[in-house]
Structures are given as C-alpha cells and as structure tokens.
C-alpha cells in the first residue's frame, strides 16, 4: 500500500461504515447521455429516460405542484406501468401482432389535435413537459397492440347468451324512470396480501384528481382495466349493471364528483360520475342548440371597477339584440368576436349555464358571463333548438356488446396477471 493510500484511509471518518477515503479519484467518468436500465423485462430494456419521459406525461396532467416524495412514488408506478406495457407488446408480437408506424402516427396526430396542436407543435409541447414524441408513440403502440391481442385471444371466447341479454332488457323496462349514470373508472389490481399499498396508492390518485389533475389522463396511465384506452369511460350504465359497491357509491354522488377508493373483488376502483339521467325518459338537457358566442376582451390586469363599464356596455347592447341576424352588427359596433356552433347539447355546457339556456327562446342571449381576470367576457345567443326525442330502449346488440365488454375486461386482467407471473424481470 502506498503512503498516499494509507493517509487517505486514515483520514476517512470514523463513523463511515463504508470506510471511504476522504479524497476520491474517479477512475472513469459518468456520461449523462448514457441511458441506464431501470428494468430488463424478458430481455427488453426500460431505461431511466423511458421512465422520466412517461412521468412527464403524468405530471403534465396535474396542475398542482408535486412533492419529491409523491414524485418518487409516481416514478415507481410509472415503471410498473411500463413493465406491463412491455409485456403486452411482447405478447402481441409473440402472437404475430404488430402495429404499423403509419397507424401510430395517425393516432399521434389525432391526440395532438385534441390539444389543438399540429404534430410539430405537439412534439414541442411534450418536450416542454419533460416527455417526448417517442414516449407518447410507445404508449399508443402498447394500447393498440393490447386491444388487438384481446380481440384475437380473448374476445372470441367470450359469449353472452340471448337469455342473459333479454333479462337485462326486461330489467330496464321495469326500471323506466330510474337513474342512469355516465361513469368513468380507474381500476387498480390488488393481489392477495398487497391490498394496503394499493389502497394507499388509490388514495393518492384521488387526492391529485380532486386537486385538479385529469381523471382521463390518470386512467390512461394507471388503470388496469381494458377501458384505460378510452380514459376509463364506461359509458352510460344503470346501477344494476355495476358491482354492488360501485352501484351504492354512484347513487350517492353528485355530478362531476370523484369517489373515494372502493374495494372490489380483486382490486380497488375509483369512479367519476360524469353525468346522470333517467332511464327511458326524455331529458331536456338533450336539447340540441344552434348557438352564436359573442365575446369581448377586457384588460386582465384591470380591477373589477375598471372593467365594469365595458361589461355594462356589452350587456346593454345584448338587450337590443333582435335575433341572430343582428349578432354580426352588434359585434362590429362593440369590437366583439363571434363563433358559431350549430350542434351543441345543453348537457355539454357548464352546469351554471344549462338552466339558463333551457329557458331562452330562439333569438335571445344569456347575460354576460366570465371573469375580467380571464380577459374574456362572453354571451351565448340561441339561434335554433331541436327538442329531444323520446328515449328508447338500447338495442339487443348494444346490451350484448356492453355485457361482452365487461367479461373481456375481467379476462384481460387475468391475462395480464399471468404475463406478470411468468415474466423474467431484472431490476437495475
């Protein structure tokens, strides 16, 4: 041992269990451009970069600042999701199922349009959020490959008898006037003995959503049900079509609410009540309106008193409105912008506007609404309305399709569970 080495060891802190020298000479360099494997799944590498970029998609859906502890927990969940996604893609490939790049690109462009961005702008947006175009396309590939695999390996072996469908339709007839619910679900599997951490994870997800995070985005990332590809949307269901625990919860929830985590067989569900209506009855909120939106801009930095004269002048002009043909002239007079929408259901409007719109006649306008802090004050003018038609029973095929989807969903969870059990995963 050299004198220098002996001195370095002697100067190491007494309480250092590793007995590290005080002066360390690195014999290599750490290249930050080299991506390190976080897990190897049946030989396929998931890198730190893969996890960070997918985490960026999750964080982009949360408007709230996330603590370092929550970020670390989310990172572990993202890694788990990436492992499942890798297993799904591998199983699809083993069954000679591939997703063409052109199809992935088409879906990518469609997702970008939902953010009102072209492909180049969408790529820049993802990069700004700490993600990437490649990460988004990988998620698209996983979802499409899994759906196709289920279509080949699961759906052909799921059947619903005619008698089962007729029984549901008979129950629907008997329940005319009862409530029907538009429900979203995030399902987390909880293997035996792992219920507590899964429930804790579900509680954290609920907390983030209630703080403003997107339920749809979290369903895309976390849900282990086949509906994750559509943001957890279960569509319109009756209480009797849901598991007992979910049925009991949804009947007590107000519209737009998110439930506490609910223990169900095999896991935990979080449900969102998007809307509700009465079975087989006409709902006024299904009225379809033709609208013109007229809007003015105010200084976002102005006080309420400073903005009020312009808002009052806007309201006074609306009172002189003589039908939709008069909108363009008033807009020119006050420097307003006009946007047309010829097919909007009342239920698609914010809850605060729905009752107002139902009580307006064609040619009438709402009072101004908005906030001077947003810089835009709006009003809606009714230019036409189509009253809702009498509600009809869902068709035999619609009921059968929904029942089949529920059974496919159950078998899909079992399929993924078996893939996890048989996988060789090397964590690094």
Automatic annotation (TrEMBL):
Q: Name one Pfam family in it.
A: SurA_N
Tell me if Cytoplasm is a UniProt keyword of this record. Answer: no
Please report the stretch or stretches of sequence annotated as the PpiC domain. 178-275
Q: So where does this one cross the membrane?
A: none
Gene Ontology terms for molecular function = peptidyl-prolyl cis-trans isomerase activity
Which keywords does this chain's UniProt record carry?
Answer: Chaperone, Isomerase, Periplasm, Rotamase, Signal
Q: What is the protein's name according to its record?
A: Parvulin-like PPIase
- Can you name the source organism? Sphingomonas natans
């Amino acid at each position: 041992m050299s004198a220098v080495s002996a001195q370095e060891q002697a100067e190491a802190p007494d309480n250092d269990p590793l007995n590290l020298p005080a002066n360390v000479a690195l014999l290599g360099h750490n290249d930050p451009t080299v991506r390190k494997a976080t897990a190897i799944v049946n030989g396929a590498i998931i890198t730190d970069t893969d996890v960070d970029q997918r985490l960026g998609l999750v964080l982009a859906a949360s408007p709230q600042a996330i603590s370092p502890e929550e970020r670390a927990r989310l990172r572990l969940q993202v890694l788990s999701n990436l492992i499942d996604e890798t297993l799904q893609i591998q199983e699809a490939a083993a069954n000679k199922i591939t997703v063409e790049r052109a199809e992935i690109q088409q879906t990518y462009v469609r997702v970008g349009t939902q953010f009102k961005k072209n492909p180049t702008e969408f790529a820049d947006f993802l990069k700004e959020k700490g993600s990437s175009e490649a990460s988004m396309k990988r998620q698209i590939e996983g979802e499409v490959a899994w759906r196709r695999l289920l279509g080949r390996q699961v759906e052909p072996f799921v059947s619903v008898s005619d008698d089962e469908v007729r029984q549901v339709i008979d129950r629907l007839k008997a329940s005319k006037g009862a409530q029907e619910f538009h429900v979203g679900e995030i399902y987390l599997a909880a293997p035996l003995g792992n219920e507590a951490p899964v429930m804790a994870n579900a509680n954290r997800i609920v907390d983030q959503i209630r703080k403003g995070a997107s339920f749809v985005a979290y369903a895309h990332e976390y849900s282990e049900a086949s509906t994750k590809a559509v943001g957890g949307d279960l569509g319109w269901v009756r209480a009797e079509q849901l598991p007992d625990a979910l049925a009991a919860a949804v009947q007590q929830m107000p519209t737009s609410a998110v439930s506490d985590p609910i223990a169900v067989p095999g896991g935990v569900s979080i449900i969102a009540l998007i809307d509700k209506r009465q079975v087989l009855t006409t709902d006024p909120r299904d009225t379809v309106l033709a609208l013109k939106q007229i809007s003015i801009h105010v200084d976002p930095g102005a006080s309420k008193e400073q903005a009020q004269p312009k808002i009052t002048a806007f309201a006074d002009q609306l009172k002189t409105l003589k039908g939709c043909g008069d909108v363009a002239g008033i807009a020119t007079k006050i420097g307003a912008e006009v946007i047309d929408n010829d097919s909007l259901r009342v239920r698609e409007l914010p809850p605060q506007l729905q009752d107002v719109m139902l009580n307006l006649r064609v040619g009438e306008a709402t009072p101004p609404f908005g906030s001077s802090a947003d810089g835009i004050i709006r009003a809606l003018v009714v230019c036409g309305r189509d009253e809702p038609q009498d509600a009809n029973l869902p068709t035999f095929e619609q009921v059968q399709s929904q029942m089949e989807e529920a059974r496919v969903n159950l078998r899909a969870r079992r399929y993924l569970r078996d893939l996890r059990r048989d996988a060789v995963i090397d964590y690094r």
